[in-house]
């Protein structure tokens, strides 16, 4: 197992850049263990940078997040739920609930009534992601949210399914227009929708018109946003591990489970104790053009789609990445046990078990 190195200064730099670009309040999304950075550390660091609103998706994140940022912050649960026990937990913790259906509204209203309080909530509108949320055309269902005596609507939001698709931003603009029209229709009926937010990290830079009243940012804090804009963001995070051994193999040696990969020549392999349990080899890599698709296909045919940098030089992985280790082709280099391997991974897939080192 390796360790994940996180640059504190880069996170703070990115937080300032995000706030500057947004020009409106930022809701920091710290789901998935703070996007792999560590929930408590990431939230506390962003709190130090002046952010006072956070968003999560799991009930188990509420207590540690509150411990990290104190009581002066809003916490939005980015998951509409019709389960009574979950609604009660959200209300009991004083968090802002997401309401994306009549059933979720009913569960939240019942929980608030039982607790003798008024639940805070944001309405979730579905403009194309297709998970949960009211249709923007369901005005009757949306209006019912404002009629619930035990629920106070403080905001309304939607989520882009493809704001990172630089080849089809018109689809995202159409979705934004549907959301804005929905808000205007509710306003015309006398309802105060509160804070409108739709822009996520890609939309923050790819669709400036989507910034509205607030912006939800997550991956932007890590400097990992698909955009053609000059963001000024710094890429954060690198996985490090020592080479634990070096082994020689003759040509035509099968490697890995099922022997799907065979060496094409006499090969020297460095063994690095980093695998899929550390998030290596499982990350999603967007393919934006025909040439990249062809290149990806070629790498797949050669069974060497991943690389590891050892002492500043990139080397290809032999075969596929295993659960706990990788075999790296160092035939053309001088690599010995103890050399440091550095791997750029998507921290969203980084196991919570992998140690974090903040520098």
UniProtKB/TrEMBL annotation:
It holds the Pfam family Ala_racemase_C. The modification N6-(pyridoxal phosphate)lysine is found at residue 31. SUPFAM superfamilies: Alanine racemase C-terminal domain-like (SSF50621), PLP-binding barrel (SSF51419). It comes from the Bacteria. Residues 236-359 form the Alanine racemase C-terminal domain. One of its GO terms (biological process) is alanine metabolic process. GO terms for cellular component: cytosol. Its cofactor is pyridoxal 5'-phosphate. Keywords: Isomerase, Pyridoxal phosphate. Gene3D superfamilies: Alanine racemase, Lyase, Ornithine Decarboxylase, Chain A, domain 1. GO terms for molecular function: alanine racemase activity; pyridoxal phosphate binding. InterPro entries: Ala_racemase, Ala_racemase/Decarboxylase_C, Ala_racemase_C, Ala_racemase_N, PLP-binding_barrel. This is Alanine racemase C-terminal domain-containing protein. It comes from Adlercreutzia mucosicola. The lineage of its organism: Bacteria, Bacillati, Actinomycetota, Coriobacteriia, Eggerthellales.
């Amino acid at each position: 197992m390796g360790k994940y190195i996180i640059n504190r200064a880069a996170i703070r730099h990115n937080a300032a850049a995000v706030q500057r670009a947004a020009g409106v309040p930022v809701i920091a999304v710290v789901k998935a263990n703070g996007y792999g950075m560590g929930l408590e550390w990431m939230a506390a660091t962003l709190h130090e940078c002046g952010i006072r609103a956070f968003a999560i998706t799991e009930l188990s994140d509420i207590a540690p997040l509150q411990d990290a940022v104190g009581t002066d912050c809003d916490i939005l649960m980015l998951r509409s739920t019709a389960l009574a026990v979950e609604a009660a937990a959200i209300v009991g913790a004083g968090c802002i609930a997401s309401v994306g259906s009549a059933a979720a509204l009913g569960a939240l209203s019942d929980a608030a009534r039982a607790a003798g309080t008024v639940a805070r909530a944001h309405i979730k509108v579905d403009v194309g992601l297709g998970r949960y949320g009211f249709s923007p055309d369901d005005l009757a269902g949306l209006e019912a949210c404002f009629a619930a005596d035990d629920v106070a609507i403080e905001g309304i939001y939607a989520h882009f399914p493809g704001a990172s698709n630089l080849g089809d931003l018109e689809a995202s603009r159409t979705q934004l227009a549907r959301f804005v029209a929905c808000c205007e229709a509710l306003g015309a009926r006398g309802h105060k929708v509160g804070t409108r937010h739709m822009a996520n990290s890609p939309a923050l830079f790819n669709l400036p018109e989507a910034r509205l009243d607030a912006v939800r940012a997550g991956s932007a804090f890590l400097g990992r946003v698909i955009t053609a804009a000059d963001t000024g963001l710094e890429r954060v995070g690198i996985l490090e591990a020592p080479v634990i051994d070096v082994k020689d193999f003759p040509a035509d040696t099968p490697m890995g489970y099922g022997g799907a990969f065979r060496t094409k020549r006499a090969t020297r392999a460095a063994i690095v104790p980093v695998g899929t349990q550390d998030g290596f080899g499982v990350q999603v890599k967007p393919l934006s053009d025909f040439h990249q698709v062809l290149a990806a296909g070629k790498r797949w045919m050669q069974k060497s789609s991943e690389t590891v940098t050892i002492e500043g030089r990139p080397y290809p992985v032999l075969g596929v990445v295993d659960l706990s280790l990788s075999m790296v082709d160092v035939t053309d280099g001088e690599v010995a046990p103890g050399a440091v391997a550095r791997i750029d991974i998507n921290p969203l897939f980084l196991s919570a078990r992998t140690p974090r080192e903040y520098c």
